[in-house]
Design goal:
The protein is α+β, with helices and mostly antiparallel strands and 658 residues long.
Length: 658
């Protein structure tokens, strides 16, 4: 179909009048531009193992990623892999930070990699032939401080080392400490596990041919060998491992601002390093291991910041002003799978139940409507069609700073949110979802999104400078909602009856309230009386049986003067009834007589009917037609003083007599 034009066109589609003005085509700025991709990069990295930094200090930002499977640090410059650095252990987190100010020269960041119980710090090496330095070189190794060891455990191993304590006595004392709940080292736990290991190894096919004392001898020899091997190696230690890394910026939001490194441990410790990244300055103790950490600055003028830690116990703990705020503990509905901070006073937690919840870190007023938000209050929630695989913060630096949060879904989609509003989305391969992403500068571009797929592929997309991150994909629906809100509601006019009722309520308001309260009290009294009468008579379902529910059905068979009353009892409750009895009472007693007075059931199982038959005879041949009697049936539970349920059976007039 030919495009519409503001002038006439010839048969060939060319305008017949070249001088006629052309109508400009509407331009829509795309949200993303594909820069480059490498599906064969083979990188095993999550969002915690990705970052961007100006390693050479030349304004050319590099992509730094740690591949957990290969145990390597890889650096990309533009679309080229420029360097690789091996690691001694599998990395769990990586961050780039600026430790201290340099006197002269280009400022270069440091790269911190957490692996096992160490944090390895790398810096770029000497300049290459083209004047750049892309290769990372080891600069400093920070080892986490060991956890305190039980004094009794240290004393036992010291005495084992100088042969002043028997192995059996040492084993008994360490086992007693373990049973008392003491935190023991790995060496002691391995020593205490020798008993179970030797016992299991002795249960083979020819165990019957061994003597009874062989197992205990093997256990004693194994313990002695272990004590000789480890007793002389010094006192035991309790090392820990790093689980997450974070960075605190103090001077400003500039990319090269001086910052301090934060690392969290498996035992719930949060360490804040000094400015030179050589010593621990502050340590916070949390009750559980930290999975994710996010840092935001409250007031740089006062040096205040928030450290939000999502722990494995399903809670988010916040440390501010140098201490953990016990009053600001957030309980999550599901385990956390991502954490991000927005605006300096809001933390956004992605959960495993396909949701994300935003909580306030400090008291502030909402920008849209000015509503006052209290610290710890839930601000909003996001719901996704699939689980969240990765989370990152969009820090867009334009004429004004914009902070957005992006979520990568395992269903093959990346969503960017401005608060609770969706502002951008990106479709990915559903069979190869994005498991890690990082937003920031890359090369000479200010706003680039780097993603890592599940199969190891790396892709980079650039956000245009004119991309709109305020209105979002739902701008049309929001505008229509705002237009609908501007239309006044069709409120009906006030009728004469409404005006009269309003005047009456205004004049006799007190009397109407008193009358309402009297009626309400009377209703409550009648209800209580009916409940007491029902409990006393045993009528209704579960009347006095402690919450038991039994259905009782009764029928009469025969023409007289001998009748048969058939009673069926069904337990419709969730729990069985034990040792219940059916009682039969005939009235009047001088006219009707029952063959037996009761029937006992050992158990009434839920949903299983039990049937009972009892004979009733009429002793008065001249009984009038309207003077028939009744037989009352009661189901009694020995645990209750009132019947569980009751029934009344009206007896018919006998038609025949013997």
């Amino acid at each position: 179909m030919a495009q519409s034009r503001s002038h006439a066109a010839g048969p060939s589609g060319m305008p017949s009048d070249p001088d006629a003005p052309r109508r400009p085509k509407p331009k829509t700025t795309p949200k993303w531009l594909d820069a480059w991709s490498d599906p064969m990069a083979n990188v095993d990295a999550t969002s915690e193992l990705m970052d961007v930094a100006d390693l050479a200090g030349d304004g050319e930002w590099r992509l730094v990623m740690c591949s957990a499977a290969e145990r390597k640090i890889k650096v990309w410059a533009n679309a080229r892999l420029v360097s690789e650095q091996s690691l001694p252990d599998e990395p769990v987190a990586m961050r780039c930070f600026y430790a201290v100010q340099n006197d002269g020269g280009a400022r270069k960041p440091s790269v911190a990699v957490a692996a096992a119980n160490c944090v390895y710090i790398f810096r770029s090496g000497a300049s290459s032939a083209d004047g750049t330095s892309d290769r990372l070189r080891p600069y400093y190794k920070f080892t986490l401080p060991s956890l305190p060891v039980e004094p009794r455990e240290t004393e036992v191993w010291r005495r084992l080392g100088n042969d002043s304590m028997a192995v059996g006595d040492a084993f008994a004392e360490l086992a007693e400490a373990r049973d008392a709940g003491a935190a023991l080292t790995e060496r002691t736990l391995a020593f205490l596990a020798i008993e179970d290991a030797t016992t299991e190894s002795g249960t083979d096919a020819d165990s019957n041919s061994r003597r009874p004392g062989d197992a205990s001898d093997r256990t004693s020899r194994a313990r002695a060998r272990f004590a000789r091997a480890h007793g002389a190696s010094g006192p035991p230690t309790r090392p820990t491992s790093v689980t997450a890394l974070g960075v605190i910026k103090h001077d400003g939001d500039d990319p090269d601002a001086v910052s301090r490194l934060i690392f969290c441990t498996e035992h719930g410790q949060v360490h804040v390093l000094s400015a030179d990244a050589r010593a621990v300055q502050v340590t916070h103790q949390l009750p559980s291991a930290v999975s994710f950490v996010a840092v935001t600055t409250g007031s740089r003028a006062e040096g205040k910041h928030f450290i939000a830690c999502a722990c494995r116990d399903g809670r988010v703990y916040v440390a501010r002003d140098g201490a953990v705020d016990d009053a600001l503990t957030i309980d999550l509905e599901a385990p956390a799978c991502g954490l991000a901070t927005v605006g300096g006073n809001v933390v956004l937690v992605a959960c495993a139940d396909d949701t994300a919840h935003a909580y306030a870190l400090a008291d502030h007023a909402r920008e849209t409507d000015g509503e006052q938000i209290i610290a710890g209050q839930k601000v909003y929630a996001l719901y996704f069609p699939s689980s969240v695989a990765a989370t990152t913060t969009f820090d867009v630096d334009r004429r004004r700073r914009l902070e957005r949060v992006a979520f990568s879904l395992r269903g093959g989609e990346i969503r960017v949110f401005n608060g609770a509003r969706l502002v951008a989305s990106l479709e990915t391969d559903a069979n190869d979802p994005c498991v890690g992403m990082r937003f920031g500068r890359f090369g000479r571009e200010e706003n680039a999104l780097v993603t890592v797929a599940a199969n190891g592929g790396v892709a980079t997309r650039i956000m245009p400078r004119r991309a709109d991150l305020t209105s979002g994909d739902d701008a049309g629906s929001a505008a229509s909602a705002a237009g609908a809100a501007a239309v006044p509601l069709a409120v009906p006019k006030k009728t004469k009856l409404y005006v009269e009722q309003t005047a009456r309520e205004r004049e006799f308001g007190r009397e109407m309230h008193v009358a309402f309260q009297k009626d309400l009290c009377r209703l409550r009294l009648n209800t209580a009386r009916a409940r007491v009468a029902s409990a006393r008579d045993g009528g209704g379902r579960g009347g006095g049986g402690g919450g038991d529910r039994v259905r009782l059905d009764a029928s009469v068979r025969g023409l007289g003067p001998g009748f048969k009353v058939v009673v069926s009892a069904v337990n419709v409750g969730p729990t069985p009834l034990l040792n219940v009895s059916l009682l039969f009472v005939a009235e009047p007693r001088e006219v009707y007589e029952t063959a037996r007075g009761h029937q006992t059931f050992a158990a009434l199982l839920p949903g299983t009917p039990r049937t009972c038959e009892v004979g009733v005879s009429c002793a008065d041949p001249g009984l009038a037609a309207g003077a028939s009697g009744v037989v009352r049936v009661y189901l009694c539970d020995p645990r209750s003083a009132v019947p569980v349920v009751s029934a009344v059976v009206r007896m018919p007039v006998p038609e025949y007599y013997e």
